[in-house]
Design brief:
Elements lengths: L1 E3 L12 E5 L5 H10 L6 E5 L19 H11 L3 E3 L3 H4 L4 H10 L4 H4 L4 H4 L3 H16 L3 E5 L3 H12 L9 E5 L22 H4 L1 H9 L5 H14 L3 E9 L13 E9 L2 E9 L4
Parallel strand pairs: 1-4, 2-3, 2-5, 3-4, 5-6
Antiparallel strand pairs: 7-8, 8-9
Length: 280
């Protein structure tokens, strides 16, 4: 396996399966690599902590950077290369210009209309689309795999790629199931911020989604989710039931829906999602 810092050295991996990450890899990321391995094409993992998707008050400066460990995890999972570019390779015009460009990106409706991450983190999806587009341009994969825990992000990026077929011809986008800790907590690089005594509280997210899965109406599910999160001492950003594709509100469970939650424990912000049963 190769560690690559210069995009010019990616030529041997053309047509690869891409697993984009911000590093601090865990078994959730490794599961994406394992899913990609053995498909007859190289697997490239990108590691880049993207400054343009963080607001000034967010955790960019303290976001974990563990490249040596990341390389080991990627290698063990079956990756052929880790692409860890410097900032100037992604944003050759500098960060000020990059942030201005991110703010001007025309986003798909699923990024701006639902009032979820887009409302809690203004500008976030401009930065996400910017960096993923740049990575796709540099790596030129034939396939890219993302985790479903960041469901709105997945929908945004899937729509972005679908809208630009000439830019990324034939690119296949794939979403893979969330990987959970033995206690049910969705794996996240931010879990390492949690103090031991906060783990029980953090489980409020998955428990809220489990309660929602038993509700007969979306409004009931949302009420139960909010109550469960509050019972665990979590500050709620949102707890909603939405159409799985558009992420807009629904009146029933006649078509695929998802429960989506975002909540905070002190300075740690966690998200989770779950497909809810379809009732016809």
């Amino acid at each position: 396996m190769r560690l690559v810092h210069d995009a010019d050295h990616l030529a041997p991996f053309a047509g690869c399966t891409l697993v984009p990450t911000m590093g601090a890899l865990h078994d959730g990321h490794a599961s994406l690599v394992r899913r990609a391995a053995g498909r007859g094409r190289p697997v490239v993992v990108t590691v880049f902590v993207n400054p343009t998707q963080f607001a000034p008050h967010e955790d960019f400066a303290r976001y974990p950077r563990t490249l040596d460990a990341d390389v080991g995890i990627a290698r063990a999972a079956g990756a052929d290369a880790v692409f860890a570019p410097p900032s100037e390779a992604i944003y050759p015009r500098g960060l000020d210009a990059a942030r201005a460009d991110a703010a001007a990106i025309a986003l798909p409706a699923v990024a701006t209309a639902p009032g979820l991450e887009d409302a809690c983190r203004p500008g976030h999806y401009g930065g996400v689309c910017q960096v993923v587009a740049r990575l796709l341009d540099l790596v030129r994969p034939s396939q890219a795999i993302f985790g479903e825990k960041d469901w709105q992000q997945w929908r945004v990026l899937d729509e972005m790629v679908a809208a630009l077929p000439a830019r990324w011809p034939g690119l296949a986008m794939e979403v893979a199931p969330t990987v959970r800790e033995p206690d049910g907590l969705a794996m996240s690089s931010r879990n390492r911020y949690l103090r031991p005594e906060q783990r029980e509280q953090a489980l409020g997210l998955v428990r809220a989604l489990q309660v929602a899965a038993s509700a007969q109406q979306p409004a009931t599910a949302e009420r139960l989710m909010r109550e469960t999160l509050a019972d665990h001492g979590l500050a709620v950003d949102y707890a909603v039931v939405r159409d799985a594709r558009t992420l807009m509100p629904v009146g029933g469970f006649e078509r695929p829906t998802r429960g989506l939650v975002a909540a905070r424990l002190d300075t740690v912000r966690l998200i989770d999602t779950m497909a809810l049963p379809v009732c016809r």
